[in-house]
Amino acid sequence: QVQLVESGGGLVQAGGSLRLSCAASRSIFSFNVMGWYRQAPGKQRELVAAITSGGPTNYADSVKGRFTVSRDNAKNSVYLQMNSLKPEDTAVYYCNAWEGTIPRYNYWGQGTQVTVSS
Fold it and tell me: How far is CA 107 from the centre of its chain?
């Protein structure tokens, strides 16, 4: 098992920036994919950004060009740099990780609130 702990959320004005961090309780070397999801009130949880162990990334269309996902295996962490924030980015952001192939394990953090005021 592994614990994922997010930090860095908060209240920011539109156009501002935040950097989310997700620290794992053990090595992430074996994590095939790490990423960030978000869930706004009344909406389904959606993928924001993901990064594979080899480095390729994937972004939701709504955040392309504004958000950047990165990982640091030495620090057992994944990050989400969020720039040019918009009110519609307001949500609880969750760290997510996939480990293994067969069997495959999925881990979630507890979430961190991001609120963007207009």
Answer: 12
Residue 56 φ/ψ, nearest 5 degrees:
-55, 145
Taking CA atoms, 84 is separated from 47, 55, 64, 81, in Å, by 18, 24, 11, 10
Cis peptide preceding 103, ω within 30 of 0: yes
Evaluate whether 82 touches 67 at the Cβ level (below 8 Å). Answer: yes
Closest to 89 (Cα-Cα) out of 118, 50, 51, 58:
118
| Span 34-65, pLDDT tens digits | 999 999 999 999 999 999 998 899 999 999 99
pLDDT digits (tens, 9 = 90+) for 62-94: 999 999 999 999 999 999 999 999 999 999 999
| DSSP category for residue 88 | G
> Residue with structure tokens 């924030």?
85
* 15 within 8 A of 116, measured Cβ to Cβ: no
Residue 55 confidence (pLDDT)? 87
